[in-house]
Amino acid sequence: MLISYKALKTLVDFNESPEELSKLLTATGLEVEGLNEVLPVPGGLEGLVIGEVKTCEPHPNADKLKCTTVDVGSDELLQIVCGAPNVAAGQKVIVAVVGATLYPSEGDPFKIKKSKIRGELSQGMICAEDEIGMGQSHAGIMVLDTDKANGTPAAEYFNLSSDYCIEIGLTPNRADAASHFGVARDIKAIVNKDITLPSVENFALGTAQNTIALQVENAEACPRFCGLEIRGVEVKESPQWLKDFLGTIGVNSINNLVDISNYICHFLGQPMHIFDADQIKGQKIIVKAPEKGTKIKTLDGQERELNGNDLAICDTNGPIGIAGVFGGEESGVTNDTKNVFLEVAYFHPDWIRGTATRHSLKTDASFRYERGTDPNMPPFAIKLAALLVQELAGGDICAEAFEEYPNAIQNHEVPVKFKNIDRLLGKELTKGLIKEILTKLDIEIKEESETTMLLSVPPYRVDVTREADIVEEILRIYGFDNIELSENLSSDYISEFPAVEADLQRLKISELMAANGFYEVQNLSIVKPSQNAALGESEDSQVQLLNPLNEDLSVMRNSLLFSGLQTLAYNINRRNKDLKIFEFGRVYGKKVNEDKTKYYENQVLGIWLTGDQLVETWQAKSVKNDFYSLKNILSKVLGGMRLNDLSTEEAVEPRFDYGINYKLNNKLVAVAGKVKAQHAKFSGVKQDVFYAEIDWDYALKKFSQEVAFVEIPKFPAVRRDLSLVLDSEVGFDKIKTLAEKTERKLLTAVNVFDVYQGDNLGEGKKSYAISFTLQDPQKTLNDKQIDKTMNRLIQVFESELGAEIRR
User: Fold this and answer.
1) CATH 3.30.70.380 residue ranges in the chain?
2) How far apart are CA 508 and CA 652, in angstroms?
3) Model's pTM, two decimal places?
């Protein structure tokens, strides 16, 4: 939830800075998760001052330029070259001095530097409104009508002051604090100051005749409904103060009427809706749950079907809004709206929660209604809204105001015992202090004795219903930090960096493999000497059994490859040719050095693929497993172990026709490739086999339990494609590595989506079609930035890879 610091200051006259206020709010349970300064215009006009043009002469070397001298309150006049047609001596203007950064309405920011323009010195810039982000006009420079002294900051002239956006991580129980007024209630209790709400004393019914009637059929779902009709309004742009308020809390300004409803919702915590009165059929508002199957087209343009338990605002033709959730498209305010009907209501949370969940609609209104709003707020809210409508849109309030409130919602009573307060707090507070805190929280003491109190809690505090809740309220205002620790306090703790549980990680990866269609196997660790020898292992490097059961199985395996191949052969011989298996197993070896023999064993993960990955059906042909099928599952396993910063290189070893080595910190962590046909046939397999092996011990050692999370970017990504003709030996990894090295800030992804080789490219050449994804987390990229980045990438590809760009 976002809150404006300036808006809070209008409610409570506190002296705390934004940082100090954030600490106080966090201490009361309204945890502040972020605090950001919001400038009324980008840059806050820093480095811009009022200046006075003293002289203005034609530029000797340019017909459309002028040479001016400008007084900006410094000891010497500034010489500034200006191209505006309306610049003249005697004008008061806005000057950007050397060193200032301008944030134009369109385009990138730029810094003002001392320079020479057509041979004449220029020590600043006289600005137009679009050049400083204050408008769109570029017809000429801004000419001011002011008596302010030269050198006065432009921000002071425009009366600009920054605001602070306070981001509060609102817990579900604190529905009362889902607004500026709600947060102000806590501030009032902390700083012991009164709240000052906007005055509604000037509200008065008018003489215009009502055209709308009201009927509430479902008082259970809508216990209180206030309505008011205003005729003769004008829909237009909102004033700057309202746009600034909404902008600070991340709400777009639409028009004055819609902005008023958003202001009431976020300022008071009371959702409201404004209907176009002329679009209400039959001149009647009916609050009811329409029959199942009734349809309504909402403001987002979607048609939704109500299920019989959805409360709706209806006219005589049917629903015109989903109560407490979303307005209807046909009755919404447009630029042509002249007469409006204001709806401010209290809806039962259960009804709104059910409707919002069924329709997957989470709006600002449903967020508040489904948690519980203040049933006593609608009369004040509708008066304030009506006064704002008259102030910002004009119009006459009609003679009749509607209010349906047949069964008033009462405060709930909570009995408490002083001894229980002390017991739960862990500290004895004076009765006077306890009662003072409760009073600050608008909790009334109805009855009191030496040992107990009967408290009356306002209905907007939906979370305060028990004695323990009362104690929590006292504690958060008194201060958690003011409760001293016991001398005998003890606690247990969990290690911040627990050791990696090898069995748990193995289970997770096994589940991952199984979820991707693999079967786990377990094979003997004893193999034939000829199998080890086939991989180039000398007899001295093999671990031999001292007392083998037979001569065929007499050595320990140095790779899982042949164990898996034997399993494949066994299944293929039984007509099970499409196989995906994996094994966690150990490999063994020895090193002989200077008459010393060192034995070693490593745990590895082996993965085998053969046959079809998709069998043929009447809809599609069969698709065979290939190297990329293996590479895909290997990437998932390595990703599951959070081994992401891996480098790759071509694998040259006796097991594979071709393959890839995966390295981490220059140490081999995994290898994958197509098994040589001779090895497969040696085990009785006559079809292609793809095999990967992961050094499991090293992977576990490098496994990181820390997970990094980043915020989802608010600004869109942009994709650009290039077609590169390169020498055949240049792999995609070289392209990707070079691109990431060249553009570290904006480049988020590089992908190859097509590879082509043919006679028309020439011998030893291939063409890559590469996509580049660019994104700036701080702003939307423009064409100039994108083109600049892509041109830089093209230059690097041409110079370092000898690439030819296909146009």
Assistant:
1) 718-805
2) 31
3) 0.59
DSSP one-letter string for 155-181: HHHTT---EEEEEE---TT-GGGSSHH
Burial code (b: 16+ CB inside 10 Å, e: under 16) for 304-333 equals: bebbeebbbbbbeebbbbbbbbbbbbbbbb
| Token pair in block for residue 177 | 């604090």
Q: Mind listing the pLDDT tens digit for each residue in 177-230?
A: 999 999 999 999 999 999 999 999 999 999 889 999 999 999 999 999 999 999
CATH 3.30.56.10 region(s) of the chain? 2-39+162-191, 414-482
CATH code at 2-39+162-191: 3.30.56.10
Amino acid making up residue 561: L
Helix axes 378-393, 256-268, angle to 10 degrees: 150
Fold (CATH) for 414-482: Phenylalanyl-tRNA Synthetase; Chain B, domain 1 (3.30.56)
CATH code 3.40.50.720 for 42-157: no
Token pair, residue 381, equals: 């809210």
Dihedral of the alpha carbons of 514, 519, 525, 530, in degrees to the nearest 10? -130
Task: Please tell us whether the domain made up of 718-805 is placed in CATH 3.30.70.380.
Answer: yes
**Strand partners of residue 667:** 664
Which residues belong to CATH 3.30.930.10 in the chain? 502-702
Return the half-sphere exposure (C-beta side, CA atoms, 13 A cut-off) of residue 584. 15
Q: What one-letter code names the amino acid at 574?
A: R
Distances (CA, A) of 566 to 90, 127, 505, 686: 96, 80, 27, 12
pLDDT tens, position by position, 66-123: 999 999 999 999 999 999 999 999 999 999 999 999 999 888 899 999 999 999 999 9
DSSP secondary structure code for residue 641 in this structure: T
d(Cα 353, Cα 366) in Å, to the nearest integer?
Answer: 7
* Of 578, 606, 582, 570, the residue nearest 685 (C-alpha): 570
Note the pLDDT tens digit of each residue in 1-12.
Answer: 999 999 999 999
Torsion on CA atoms 696, 700, 701, 702, rounded to nearest 10: 100
Alpha-carbon distance 747 to 315, whole Å?
Answer: 53
Q: At the top level of CATH, which class does the domain 213-404 belong to?
A: alpha beta
Q: What CATH superfamily is the domain 502-702?
A: Bira Bifunctional Protein; Domain 2 (3.30.930.10)
From CA 753, how far away is CA 712, in angstroms rounded? 25
Chain region(s) in the chain for CATH 2.40.50.140: 42-157
| Ramachandran category for residue 790: left, alpha or beta (phi over 0 → left; psi -120 to 50 → alpha) | alpha
